[in-house]
Amino acid sequence: MTATIPRTLNVKEAIENRRSIRKYAQEPMNQDDLHEILRLASLAPSAWNAQTWRFAVVQDAAIKQQLQDAAYGQGQVTNAPAVIVVYSDMEDTLATVEETAHPGMGEAGREGQRKTFDGAFGGQDVAQRGQWGLSQANIAFAFVMIAARGLGYDTVPMLGFQPDKVKEILGLPEHVQFAGLLPVGKRAEDGFPHHRHSVERITKFY
Ligand SMILES: Cc1cc2nc3c(=O)[nH]c(=O)nc-3n(C[C@H](O)[C@H](O)[C@H](O)COP(=O)(O)O)c2cc1C
């Protein structure tokens, strides 16, 4: 039987309790909770506060089916009530970079932000700076998983899909890069216990 988990978990509980879940209760997502998960994820940090991540939330059954087809038929896509697609849009980030300057810094901050980004990325091609954008979006991807678990929901991160097909289904521009698909809902299975390297195996202390 699936363990009962309190509705709001602290960070330690959310991290320890998160595991990939591929079977979900067949009930729609609470829309306020969905919004709160995205709001919490949007608090993720990013270099120069670039916030390159963008979310596409799919709850429509027909579109979920299309996503599942693009994900080699992986059943968790349609089994979950919602799929959060986390991607980075570095071109949108660059075009609107003034928005990410802290308002407290005024016009000088907005100009500084523009200068910083033009200087750092103006000489790079779309693919190169897109890769940088993705490295930021991956941080938000992890935040979505932990925020969801903290609010009593479960997820499974997915990269097993054809990116071009997903772009076509969602009408996303060619240049975007995916952190992943994230089916989300209430668990209807326990998932697998964690199997991880020990801290000693992966850490050098100096
Ligand atoms: C970036 C990423 C991509 C993944 N892609 C898939 C996927 O396409 N399908 C799937 O069933 N699981 C996928 N997984 C889930 C992993 O198999 C799982 O996270 C890992 O085995 C550890 O298990 P846990 O999440 O239960 O702790 C992916 C995980 C990550 C982080």
H/E element order: HHEHHEHHHEHEH
Looking at the overall shape, the CATH architecture is 3-Layer(aba) Sandwich
What's the pLDDT, averaged over the residues? 96
Query: Separation of termini?
Result: 45 Å
Question: What can be said about the biggest beta sheet?
Answer: 4 strands, antiparallel
Unreliably modeled segments? none
The set of bound ligands, ions and cofactors reads:
flavin mononucleotide
Sheet with the most strands: spatial strand order: 1-2-4-3
Percentage of residues in strands: 5-15%
Protein structure class: alpha+beta
Helix content: 40-55%
How many separate helices? 9
Q: Name the overall outline.
A: globular
* CATH topology description: NADH Oxidase
The CATH class name reads Alpha Beta
Q: Indicate how many domains the architecture comprises.
A: 1
- Tell me the Rg in angstroms: 18 Å
Multimeric status of the protein: single chain
Folded structure, characterized:
- This protein is of the alpha+beta class and 206 residues long.
- It has a single domain, classed as NADH Oxidase (3-Layer(aba) Sandwich), CATH 3.40.109.
- Helix content is 44%, strand content 12%.
- It has 9 helices and 4 strands.
- The chain has helices spanning 11-17, 31-41, 61-70, 76-79, 90-95, 106-121, 126-150, 163-170, 199-202; strands at residues 53-58, 82-88, 154-155, 177-185.
- Helix 2 (31-41) packs across helix 7 and helix 3 (61-70) packs antiparallel against helix 8.
- The longest helix has 25 residues, at 126-150.
- The chain is globular.
- The relative contact order is 0.24.
- The mean pLDDT is 96.
- The chain binds flavin mononucleotide (FMN).
- Flavin mononucleotide binds next to loops.
- This is NADH dehydrogenase.
- Belongs to the nitroreductase family.
- Residues 15-186 form the Nitroreductase domain.
- InterPro entries: Nitroreductase (IPR029479), Nitroreductase-like (IPR000415).
